[in-house]
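Chain and conformation:
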Amino acid sequence: METYQKLLLENKAWAKEKVEDDPAYFDRLAHIQTPEFLWIGCSDSRVPANEITNTQPGEIFVHRNVANMVIHTDVNLLSVLEYAVEHLKVKHVIVCGHYGCGGVKAALSNHDFKQVLNMWIRNIKDVYRIHRDELDSINNEESKFDRLVELNVVEQVMHLAKTSIIQRAWKKEQRPDLHGWVYGLKDGIINPVFEMRANTPLDPLYEYDDLQ
């Protein structure tokens, strides 16, 4: 049996078990999606949003990419953000990184990862540049790595706040709150490292003054 065929068999077993436990389970899911949370996480297969938060399908709207980045030219990310904020009316947006992130580790090196990954990782290098003094003062390489993971999450939350999508929702509906979390692969615990409540003041350079 091919490995992908095992996934299909496991899917059938999972669906059968769900219906046996709750005959209306899939009917409810098919008609209702009212998540309170948008999760922007890393694509790393060890960090599944629903599993590590013990939530059910329909409770969290999820977007994932390498190193949980919020990049203002990423139409995929922005379309998810706009849909979640404008249409699903989420109350919280969570950027969740994780210690041991391969994308962040790559940014600590000077290795050539070829064009597309180089472009992506350069955004993490910018985080290092902004926080160079703090990071260069850390002598332990593992501690420096962990701190860059945390600072990357902080900067991505800040990037969210700079979007007109978030600022418009803050102005009109005083939501969503923004959260920066880091998940520990070694212990399974989420570490909250940053938070921006709705209408948190920004550097005026980034504030829109004519939102409709």
